[in-house]
């Protein structure tokens, strides 16, 4: 018998990802307004390392979520809740969001990998350097990271608007991701 | 095969209130998390002497950040200004409240999901959590009012807005519960 809603692990991971993504956005706006690093000014060290830690963790969590999502697929939504056309659009939108999360995290890591700063995952595991410090490459990946993040934010806003739309309709869609 | 796994008898008010609580809860968890980090990072990295060193603004870094030399120097002054405006008790008090707020905000995500499913415990829990969040806002308001003009300018409008939002959620949950009680 197939479940109507998403698997509970997928639900928990979805909300952890949501909180992490918003934390990364909001904290990054603040940390970019901290003084540029020097020997005496180290304000950016902790926030930047935390930003990288959460970003890398996000990739892992998203991978697990997608694995669970495909291993335990939910039944398609009822036609009274969502037309087949809208369902196709929603699948595309979700695929775009997943793709962008991966891209934003990977481009952020590549940007960081071209700086003189090492990545020590959760202050425990030192990642091997994959590239030498290179200002141009850092800037290239940094800009891609930033623009992709803005696009991701726009898609997340649309995603939230769609969720609110379904909650006002009080149909079965929203409860698929709320299996407590 | 379709199951009756998903509760379809959720009243409209609970469905809407639940989703609003979730959206705001996700956002507020991130905001309180950032605030906790701010109060941790700024005092910990201030020079012991209290004197801020000169800003280090190499040209290539300025280009990369897309800022001018004046802006780069201001970043140091900005942090110094916040540190100077913060009374000694401010960072620890604000960090404690933000930590509590972060936990309650995440709890409001869980409770919001329970409201969408209209579980038996959802409405009472929502009232408790929303009241807790409104109380944290009130305490933060009191803390910021007792600081100084710079911090009031940064925080007060945002704390007030969150207080009003949490008050609306709280009143909405109470009204929903009363309506439900009257119906039975």
Query: What class do helices, strands and sheet pairing of chain A give?
Result: mainly alpha
Overall geometric form of chain A? elongated
Count of DSSP helices of chain A?
Answer: 4
Radius of gyration of chain B: 22 Å
Q: Identify the quaternary structure here.
A: heterodimer
Q: What spatial order of strands do you see in the largest sheet of chain A? A: 1-2
Termini distance of chain B? 33 Å
What is the count of β-strands of chain A?
A: 2
Question: Proportion of β residues of chain B?
Answer: under 5%
Query: How much β-strand is present in the residues of chain A?
Result: under 5%
C-alpha end-to-end distance of chain A: 19 Å
Q: Describe the main β-sheet of chain B briefly.
A: none
| Low-confidence region ranges of chain B | 1-5
Précis, in short:
The complex is a heterodimer of chains A (180) and B (184). With 180 residues, chain A is mainly alpha-helical.
Q: What is this structure's SSE topology?
A:
The complex is a heterodimer of chains A (180) and B (184).
Chain A lengths: L7 H24 L13 H27 L12 H30 L6 E2 L3 E2 L8 H35 L11
Antiparallel strand pairs in A: 1-2
Helix pairs in contact in A: 1-2, 2-3, 3-4
Chain B lengths: L11 H34 L13 H7 L3 H17 L4 H28 L4 H24 L3 H35 L1
Helix pairs in contact in B: 1-4, 1-6, 4-5, 5-6
Provide key terms for this protein.
heterodimer, A: 180 residues, mainly alpha, Fumarate Reductase Cytochrome B subunit, two-stranded antiparallel ribbon, 2 strands, 64% helix, 2% strand, B: 184 residues
Q: What does this protein look like?
A:
The complex is a heterodimer of chains A (180) and B (184). Chain A is mainly α. Chain A has a single domain, classed as Up-down Bundle (Fumarate Reductase Cytochrome B subunit), CATH 1.20.950. Chain A has 4 helices and 2 strands. Chain A has a two-stranded antiparallel sheet. In chain A, a hairpin with a 3-residue loop joins strand 1 and strand 2. Chain B is mainly α and 184 residues long. Chain B has a domain of 128 residues. Chain B has 6 helices and no strands. Chain B is elongated. The N terminus of chain B is likely disordered. Chains A and B meet through helix 1, helix 2 and helix 4 of A and helix 1, helix 2, helix 3 and helix 4 of B.
